[in-house]
Amino acid sequence: MKINPTVAVTLFLLSLMVGAGIFSGTWGYTLGRQALKGITQPDIRPGANIGETEPIPARREQVVILREEDILVDVKARIAGQADETVPANPGGPQTKALIEQPIDTAPLQPNEQVGLPIATQSQGVTLQVLALRQQEDQFILEVSLQNQGDRPYRFSYSFIDIVDDQGQLLDGSTQGLPEEVPPTGEVFSGTIAVSATSLGSSSRLSLALVDYPDQQLKLQVSGIPVVR
């Protein structure tokens, strides 16, 4: 019986593939077994070795519990800028109480007579005064007041207020506290005008000009306001 060469080659190749698979599997199993020699599974039984190990001594440290009142006192003192850099050894003791009892200077700013304040101007019964001035962070603050003792109310739009330095430069300012309408009741209305300190440069004097809106029948102008740094 004659064997087909193609069938013979196919059977031969299949035999080689099966043999190679068996050989590689056996070889891989042998290498893995050798690599795991000496390695055992840990004993995870719940009751294993109970009582055989020495107990671990508990750490006993002294815990100091602070009172809530003392914590609040310390926080308030730190916010007020009067707390020491170190925490007192005896919370709630005399040192903490001394921090609380220190007075905080909350006195209002008084007009500065040395620079000729207050400065006032009046027109048609309406008075504009610059009472005091100070520098707060990056702003130059003017404390001003308006009073109407005339016979009619006046409305103002403070976005049109002119602030000019002694070099003729027009400055931007923001107004707070002044009313949009000043009635003829004689009541004094107080507010502030803030100017950026960086925009002042080397200026030494300021001028304010305020016109009623929209009639523009009243003009209040204050000149010679000193810039104190």
General description of the model:
With 229 residues, the protein is α+β, with helices and mostly antiparallel strands. Among the domains are: 71-99, no CATH class; 113-226, Immunoglobulin-like, CATH 2.60.40. Helices cover 24% and strands 28% of the residues. A five-stranded antiparallel sheet has the order 1-2-3-9-7. The protein has a four-stranded antiparallel sheet with strand order 6-5-10-11, with no helix packed on it. The chain has a two-stranded antiparallel ribbon with strand order 4-8. The model is unreliable at 83-114 (pLDDT under 50).
Describe the structure concisely for a colleague.
By secondary structure, the chain is of the alpha+beta class. It has helices spanning 5-35, 68-79, 94-101, 197-200, and strands at residues 119-123, 126-136, 139-148, 154-155, 162-165, 170-171, 173-176, 181-182, 188-196, 205-211, 219-226.
Write out the CATH superfamily name of one domain.
Immunoglobulins
Strand pairing plus helix content: what structural class?
alpha+beta
Distance between the termini: 121 Å
* H/E element order: HHHEEEEEEEEEHEE
CATH class of one domain: Mainly Beta
Strand arrangement, major sheet: 1-2-3-9-7
- Main sheet: strands, sense, barrel: 5 strands, antiparallel
CATH architecture of one domain: Sandwich
Q: What is the overall shape?
A: elongated
Give me the Rg, rounded. 44 Å
CATH fold field value of one domain: Immunoglobulin-like
Tally of helical runs: 4
Beta-strand portion reads 25-35%
Helix content: 10-25%
Number of strands: 11
Low-confidence residue ranges: 83-114
Mean pLDDT: 76
